[in-house]
Every structure is written in structure tokens, then in C-alpha cells.
């Protein structure tokens, strides 16, 4: 990203070329690990240009319609839940409608903004939907109560129900249509999400890249402007764009003021679980993409039918694999390898100081959860499993977040360090792959020309439009082109 604007620049990364996401392999087939089932959706033409340059062929991709459901009371309720209460049992329909109507009436006379995410939920959807879905589901995702989260991050992330449409659909028993920024999406044919970024990295000059553990930054001397690598190599810089977790960055800087400030940021960890199953994909699973689980009969909050994204995401039927266990925990009758077909599921489990997890038994608990939710049957044959914990999983939009970031990021910039990315700038609302990529691009533009960093400073602006001004075959945006938008004021 820096290569466009600077004659001398390098990309240093502690992991492989997959950069922001990582694809592990199990039995020779990809499992999106750090990608966690995330899919490509773009708010930016520049991002599209870069991806298309790296993977330009039609057969590099599969395009899918988003088919998502919420598991509730043994039912598959179409996503988003709050728009499809027509699918609930009658008692729950009545409870939710009561809340939706009360919320609509109260919203008409409200004179203050919601103080937190929980208040926003109740004001937008009512107590019924809050209790049945929004509170339990969001606790499973974020690993913090909704009362401890702010609501400025929401934007396009959460669908507010159309009261008239919800009532009409409930009376008529209709299902609401697809919603959201990724109602359709494309997925790489091969190598999972990490394969995208390997291909993007391959478009950059080899001498400007340094990947692997030897590229781990162990120390940053902000005064002398020197970064030290794990192998002892030192690199001097004039301006530094860091995509490290900002809390870890300031620790490696040894700046105690910034370390203390960063303690106000909160995050949750994510466990990624993969399960490979022998047999035809069940009809009850069908062409579903990803599924949501608010109830406490399983530890995971989301399941991705990873084998539906690409036929190359699982072994072909003629590949022979042994059964490592039966889903109910019993031993298989034979350890001899045998053929498929196969299908696979990827699960996500959150963890924090406010939501502990039994890490030693998490795989077993997840498989039991799959049985409890009728995703798999007790006698299904498990041919592969995968488990990895990502310490920094979600940057929490906590009540304290903005107060910290409005001090921390400018203080780093005063030291010529632009901390950007999912955990670099810690703003979940601009933490998807396209956002994270453009945060780096716009940081480079800002350094080179003074251009405003729209993604960092105006999340709602970039998330509610197709951003076409910046293109790969054009130069960086100057501050004149975005002069109508003020830069972020730094505190005195």
C-alpha cells in the first residue's frame, strides 16, 4: 500500500502472506481460520480493483446468495430475526409485537439518545425481541453484556425493524426478504479467504515484503524511529503505518502513558472450530451459508457451512479418510480409511473475562452443540477437526472506546505512527476486510498528500455509499478533493 506513494517502503508482517486473514489446512483442504468465515463485500471500488487485479479470472470466484437463519426453539427463522417474527410460535409473536409497538410509540416522544447498546435495542425493537434474541445472541458474540457496549458503531450492522412490515408479515405469515451489505457475496474458489491476500501480496515487489516470524516486530523506538524484528534486524522509518493490535504496539514502544491509556480498550477472543463430516450434506442443511445461535444449548454463536462456499473446500468423494470419532463420542467400528462424500462446518465461540470458556473441552462441547441443534446426528462420522484460539477476536465497541481512541490515535500520530486496521484503530464498524485494507490505503494518502482518512473518521459516510473516487489506476486523493470534510480535531 505504501509503495504507490513512497519511493522507499516495506511491508512487514509476522504471519504468512495471507495478511489480515489466515487459511489453515486440514486433510489438505482449507479452513478459514482468522477469516472466520468472513466473506468479501466491498464499499470501495479501489478495493475491488486490487482484488480483481490479484484474482482476475471468472473461475477464481464463486458468487453466492446469502442464505442465513437463526436457530430458535427448534426452528430455522430467516435472518434478520427481528424482521421475521412471523416465523415464531404464536406466544412469542405476540410478545415480540407488544414490544415492537411499545418501542415505536416511545420512540416518537423520546428526547434523548440511547446511552448504550441495550437501550438502543429496546428503543428500536422492544423488550420481546431484546429478551428472545438480541440480548442473548449479542452476549454470545461480544462476550460482554449489551449494557456495557455503546451504540454509535451500529450503522448498517443491525437492521431496525419496519413496524408496519413486521405486523403485516406476521398477520399474513410472510417472510421478509434479504437485508444487509452482504446479501450477496463472492468467495474465492480455492485456498479460502487467505488465498485472496496471498494473491494480492504476490502483486507487490518481492524486495518490499518480509513475511513470517522473522518479521515479528518486538520493539518500536518512536524517538529514534527504529523498529526491531524478532531476528534482530532493525528498520528505520520516517512515517510508520502499524496494523499491530494497538495495545500491543504501545507495549512494544515501552511508552507507559500510552500503555495506561490503552488499558481502557476491551476485546474478546475467538475460538474457531472446524468439523469435517463424512456423508452427503443433509437436506435440512441445504444451501445455507451461515447460521446464528442465540440459545444456550450450544457454545457457538455462528456456524458457517464452509463446504457450501466452494467445492474445493472439502476432499473429493474418492479421497479415503479414516473416521476419527462418532459424533456422540463413541469409537468408530473401524479405523480403516474409506471414501466420502464430505461436508464441513466452521464454528465460532467468543471468550472474555466476562464470558469464560472451558477451553479444554471446547471441541467436544461444540460437537455436542451441533447435535443439540440438529446440525449433525449422533451417529455421524467425524473425519477431521480443527481448533484455534485468536486472542484478539473482536474489538469491542465498549462505552469507554471513543474516549480512549480520541486520545490514543492522535498521540501516536504525533510520534509519526499511524495505527490502523481492525485492531490498529479498534473501530469494529470499519473492521471488515475492505475497511481494514482501505484504512491502510488512506493512511498512506494522508501521509503523502494530507488527504482526509474517510474510513477512520467517517464510518457512517463510507458505509452508506459506494466509494468510487479512489481507483487503483489513479493517484492518491488530495486533501482538495475531500476538502468538504474536516479532518479530525486533535485534543489540546
Topology diagram in text:
Blueprint: E1 11-13, E2 23-26, E3 29-32, H1 45-54, E4 61-65, E5 68-72, E6 75-78, H2 90-109, H3 117-142, H4 163-172, E7 184-188, H5 192-201, E8 209-211, E9 217-221, E10 226-229, E11 234-236, E12 240-242, H6 246-253, H7 256-262, E13 267-278, E14 290-292, E15 302-304, E16 325-326, E17 342-351, H8 362-372, E18 381-395, H9 401-414, E19 417-419, H10 433-449, H11 454-457, H12 459-463
Helix pairs in contact: 1-5, 2-3, 2-4, 6-7
Describe the structure.
- This protein is α+β, with helices and mostly antiparallel strands and 492 residues long.
- Among the domains are: 81-172, no CATH class; 267-395, Alpha-Beta Complex (Polyamine Oxidase, Chain A, domain 2).
- The protein contains 12 helices and 19 strands.
- The strands form 6 sheets. An 8-stranded mixed sheet has the order 6-5-14-15-17-13-18-16.
- A hairpin with a 4-residue loop joins strand 9 (217-221) and strand 10.
- Helix 1 (45-54) crosses helix 5 (192-201), helix 2 crosses helix 3 (117-142) and helix 2 packs antiparallel against helix 4.
- The longest helix is centred in the first third of the chain and has 26 residues, at 117-142.
- 42% of the residues are buried.
Radius of gyration: 23 Å
Strand content: 15-25%
Shape: globular
Report the uncertain regions: 1-8, 17-25, 479-492
Assign the structural class, choosing from mainly alpha, mainly beta, alpha/beta, alpha+beta, or little secondary structure.
Answer: alpha+beta
Question: Count of helices?
Answer: 12
Mean pLDDT score, rounded?
A: 88
Number of strands: 19
Placed side by side, the strands forming the largest sheet appear as 6-5-14-15-17-13-18-16
Oligomer: single chain
The separation of the N and C termini measures 31 Å
Helix content: 25-40%
Q: Name the CATH class of the domain at 267-395.
A: Alpha Beta
CATH architecture of the domain at 267-395: Alpha-Beta Complex
Q: Provide the CATH superfamily of the domain at 267-395.
A: Protoporphyrinogen oxidase, mitochondrial, domain 2
Q: State the CATH topology of the domain at 267-395.
A: Polyamine Oxidase, Chain A, domain 2
InterPro entries: FAD/NAD-bd_sf
Protein name: Putative UDP-galactopyranose mutase
Region (Disordered): 469-492
Amino acid at each position: 500500500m505504501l509503495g504507490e506513494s513512497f519511493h522507499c517502503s516495506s511491508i512487514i508482517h509476522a504471519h504468512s502472506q495471507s495478511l489480515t486473514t489466515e487459511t489453515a489446512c486440514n486433510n489438505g483442504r482449507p479452513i478459514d481460520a482468522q477469516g472466520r468465515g468472513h466473506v468479501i463485500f466491498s464499499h470501495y471500488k479501489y478495493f475491488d480493483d486490487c482484488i480483481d487485479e490479484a484474482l482476475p479470472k471468472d473461475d477464481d470466484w464463486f458468487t453466492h446468495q446469502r442464505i442465513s437463519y437463526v436457530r430458535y426453539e427448534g426452528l430455522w427463522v430467516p435472518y434478520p430475526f427481528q424482521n421475521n417474527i412471523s416465523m415464531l410460535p404464536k406466544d412469542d409473536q405476540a410478545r415480540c409485537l407488544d414490544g415492537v409497538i411499545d418501542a415505536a410509540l416511545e420512540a416518537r416522544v423520546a428526547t434523548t439518545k440511547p446511552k448504550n447498546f441495550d437501550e438502543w435495542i429496546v428503543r428500536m425493537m422492544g423488550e420481546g425481541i431484546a429478551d428472545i434474541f438480541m440480548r442473548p445472541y449479542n452476549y454470545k458474540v461480544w462476550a460482554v453484556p449489551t449494557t456495557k457496549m455503546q451504540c454509535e458503531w451500529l450503522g448498517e450492522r443491525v437492521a431496525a425493524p419496519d413496524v408496519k412490515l413486521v405486523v403485516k408479515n406476521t398477520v399474513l405469515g410472510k417472510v421478509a426478504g434479504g437485508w444487509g451489505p452482504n446479501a450477496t457475496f463472492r468467495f474465492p474458489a480455492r485456498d479460502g479467504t487467505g488465498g485472496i491476500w496471498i494473491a494480492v501480496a504476490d502483486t507487490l515487489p518481492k524486495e518490499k515484503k518480509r513475511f513470517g516470524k522473522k518479521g515479528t516486530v518486538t520493539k518500536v523506538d518512536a524517538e529514534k524511529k527504529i523498529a526491531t524484528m524478532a531476528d534482530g534486524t532493525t528498520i528505520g522509518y520516517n512515517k510508520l503505518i502499524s496494523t499491530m493490535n494497538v495495545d500491543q504496539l504501545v507495549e512494544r514502544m515501552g511508552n507507559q502513558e500510552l500503555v495506561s491509556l490503552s488499558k481502557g480498550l476491551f476485546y474478546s477472543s475467538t475460538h474457531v472450530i472446524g468439523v469435517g463430516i463424512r456423508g452427503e450434506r443433509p437436506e435440512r442443511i441445504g444451501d445455507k451459508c451461515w447460521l446464528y445461535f442465540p440459545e444456550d444449548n450450544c457454545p457457538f454463536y455462528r456456524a458457517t457451512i464452509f463446504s457450501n462456499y466452494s467445492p474445493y473446500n472439502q476432499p473429493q468423494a474418492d479421497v479415503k479418510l479414516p473416521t476419527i470419532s462418532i459424533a456422540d463420542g463413541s469409537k468408530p467400528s473401524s479405523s480403516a480409511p474409506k471414501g466420502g462424500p464430505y461436508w464441513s462446518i466452521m464454528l465460532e465461540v467468543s471468550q472474555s473475562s466476562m464470558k469464560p470458556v472451558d477451553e479444554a473441552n471446547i471441541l467436544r462441547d461444540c460437537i455436542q452443540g451441533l447435535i443439540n441443534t440438529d446440525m449433525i446426528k449422533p451417529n455421524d462420522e467425524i473425519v477431521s477437526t480443527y481448533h484455534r484460539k485468536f486472542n484478539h477476536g473482536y474489538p469491542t465497541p465498549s462505552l469507554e472506546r471513543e474516549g480512549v481512541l480520541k486520545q490514543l490515535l492522535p498521540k501516536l500520530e504525533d510520534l509519526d505512527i499511524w495505527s490502523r486496521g481492525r485492531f490498529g484503530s479498534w473501530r469494529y464498524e470499519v473492521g471488515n476486510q475492505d475497511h481494514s485494507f482501505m484504512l491502510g490505503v488512506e493512511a498512506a494518502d494522508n501521509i503523502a498528500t494530507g488527504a482526509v482518512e474517510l474510513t477512520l473518521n467517517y464510518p457512517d459516510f463510507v458505509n452508506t455509499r459506494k466509494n468510487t473516487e479512489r481507483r487503483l489506476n489513479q493517484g492518491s486523493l488530495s486533501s482538495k478533493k475531500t476538502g468538504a470534510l474536516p479532518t479530525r480535531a486533535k485534543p489540546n
